[in-house]
């Protein structure tokens, strides 16, 4: 069934449920109708007896002598209820002639009956008979009024009504299948539309927005598809831009290396001698290696966004270790470090790379001093790293952390982009602040709640 279209599956489910309910009702109706009509027959018999006895004003002997009893019984023997009167001695004094076996059975019931009115049902040959025996006293004499209905009458009522109900249910069942089919198509129409749109997105045709004005689960699914489309569009734009930037960044050192190598092969030394020319090739190779290493780390971070491994560690110890290792690269500036004891949850190796890249950026622009401060503020760990270099214009702070963003000295790099991605992986925030003669990179990291 799962291989059929969803509309057909929904219709089949509706049809199966309605058909099952119809069959169940068809099985239960005979029992329910028979039980109902049995009670109604007994009620009808007793009501007929009440009507008959309301006319019993003469003595039983008088009715028998004048033929009044016979006429009254014939008048009351309507609607399948038949009356027979028994004397106390078992003699039948009025009513239709009954088989001797039935008369004997009725006399036995009369003899055993203790209540004034009692209901019976007995098998008689191939049928059943429903009857009520009522004891009454008329003109000082006790009589027994036996009123009965044959089972054929009950079966006729049940079968007639049952067939009518079955026909009605069958008609309703057949008629309801058309609305069910329409409902199935109505429910699956937006799913079909979403399927077509997802196919287009899979074929990279994602320029057209997908809007489905619904507030139910289907509408929320459509909203998720639209958000996916937007992210794919954004990711594609970033990827195209990134590829252009990468090709430009890698092309320059490769061109320099090839041109210098070709010149050396031709016996020409661009720097005057072989060592100077080879040194340029080595510098460009190192620059190329740095770019490739940055690209590989960016790719690694994108993978770790889904496979992040975290643990508790002392951020202050990590910061001080990186600080002590890098401060010897620029001994001409004043290094100032203040770190409080702070424990965070995250990946220590990633944070080490982030701090290294930030300090490397400070060393590039610092004139006389580089400062680092780690503490706690508003329930977060706050890391401030700054230098006394030129301020960063406000319009450039938004693009500062983009990949291959151009710096003040005309350099392109991935360092700050890597920092931004690490910060985002740890649900932290980074911003740039221009102070009095200083530029600070401020990272706010959520602390573990105890």
CATH class of the largest domain: Alpha Beta
What fraction of the residues are assigned to beta strands by DSSP? 15-25%
| Strand line-up in the sheet with most strands | 2-1-5-4-3
Give the overall average pLDDT: 80
Shape: rod-shaped
Which stretches of 5+ consecutive residues score pLDDT under 50?
58-62
Largest sheet: 5 strands, antiparallel
* Count of alpha and pi helical runs: 11
- Classify the oligomer: single chain
Give the radius of gyration. Answer: 50 Å
Structural class estimated from helices and strands: alpha+beta
The CATH architecture of the largest domain can be named as 2-Layer Sandwich
Order of helices and strands: HHHEEHEEEHHHEHEEHEEHHEE
Write the CATH fold name of the largest domain. Answer: Beta-Lactamase
Q: Got a strand count?
A: 12
Number of domains: 3
Provide the helix percentage: 55-70%
User: What is the rounded distance between the termini?
Assistant: 52 Å
In short:
The chain has 450 residues and is of the alpha+beta class. 57% of the residues lie in helices and 19% in strands. It is rod-shaped.
Write structural notes for this entry.
- This protein has 450 residues and is of the alpha+beta class.
- It has 3 domains: 6-158, Beta-Lactamase (2-Layer Sandwich), CATH 3.30.450; 217-303, Helix Hairpins (Orthogonal Bundle); 309-446, Histidine kinase-like ATPase, C-terminal domain (Heat Shock Protein 90).
- Helices cover 57% and strands 19% of the residues.
- It contains 11 helices and 12 strands.
- The chain has a 5-stranded antiparallel beta sheet with strand order 2-1-5-4-3, sandwiched between helices. A 5-stranded mixed beta sheet has the order 7-9-10-12-11, with helices on one face. The protein has a two-stranded antiparallel sheet with strand order 6-8.
- The radius of gyration is 50 Å and the shape is rod-shaped.
- It starts with 5 loop residues before the first helix and ends with a strand.
- It is a multi-pass membrane protein.
């Amino acid at each position: 069934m799962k291989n059929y279209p969803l509309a057909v599956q929904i219709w089949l489910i509706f049809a199966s449920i309605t058909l099952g309910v119809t069959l169940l009702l068809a099985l239960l109706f005979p029992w329910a109708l028979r039980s109902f009509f049995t009670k109604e027959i007994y009620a009808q018999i007793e009501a007929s007896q009440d009507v008959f006895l309301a006319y019993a004003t003469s003595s039983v002997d008088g009715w028998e002598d004048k033929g009044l009893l016979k006429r009254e019984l014939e008048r009351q023997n309507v609607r399948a209820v038949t009356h027979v009167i028994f004397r106390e001695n078992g003699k039948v004094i009025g009513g239709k002639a009954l088989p001797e076996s039935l008369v004997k059975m009725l006399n036995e019931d009369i003899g055993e009956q203790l209540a004034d009115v009692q209901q019976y049902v007995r098998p008689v040959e191939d049928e059943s008979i429903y009857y009520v025996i009522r004891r009454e006293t008329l003109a000082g004499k006790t009589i027994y009024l036996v009123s009965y209905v044959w089972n054929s009458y009950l079966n006729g009522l049940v079968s007639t009504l049952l067939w009518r109900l079955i026909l009605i249910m069958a008609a309703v069942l057949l008629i309801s299948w058309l609305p069910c089919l329409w409902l199935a198509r109505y429910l699956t129409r937006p799913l079909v539309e979403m399927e077509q749109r997802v196919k287009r997105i899979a074929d990279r045709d994602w320029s057209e927005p997908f809007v489905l004005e619904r507030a139910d689960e289907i509408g929320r699914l459509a909203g998720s598809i639209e958000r996916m489309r937007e992210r794919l569009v954004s990711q594609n734009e970033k990827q195209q831009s990134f590829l252009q930037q990468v090709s430009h960044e890698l092309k320059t050192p490769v061109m320099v290396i090839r041109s210098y190598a070709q010149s050396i092969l031709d016996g020409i030394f661009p720097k005057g001698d072989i060592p100077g020319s080879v040194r340029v090739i080595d510098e460009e190779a190192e620059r190329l290696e740095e770019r490739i290493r940055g690209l590989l780390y960016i790719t690694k971070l994108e993978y770790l966004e889904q496979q992040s491994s975290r643990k508790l560690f002392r951020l202050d110890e990590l910061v001080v270790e990186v600080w002590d290792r890098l401060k010897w690269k620029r001994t001409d500036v004043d290094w100032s470090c203040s770190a409080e004891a702070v424990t965070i949850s995250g990946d220590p190796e990633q944070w080490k790379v982030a701090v290294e890249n930030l300090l490397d950026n400070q060393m590039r622009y610092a004139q006389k001093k580089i400062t680092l401060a780690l503490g706690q503020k508003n329930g977060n760990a706050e890391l401030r790293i700054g230098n006394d270099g030129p301020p960063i214009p406000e319009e450039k702070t938004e693009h500062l952390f983009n990949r291959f963003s151009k710096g003040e000295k005309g350099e392109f790099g991935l360092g700050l982009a890597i920092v931004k991605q690490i910060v985002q992986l740890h649900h932290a925030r980074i911003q740039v602040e221009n102070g009095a003669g200083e530029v600070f990179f401020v990272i706010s990291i959520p602390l573990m709640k105890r």
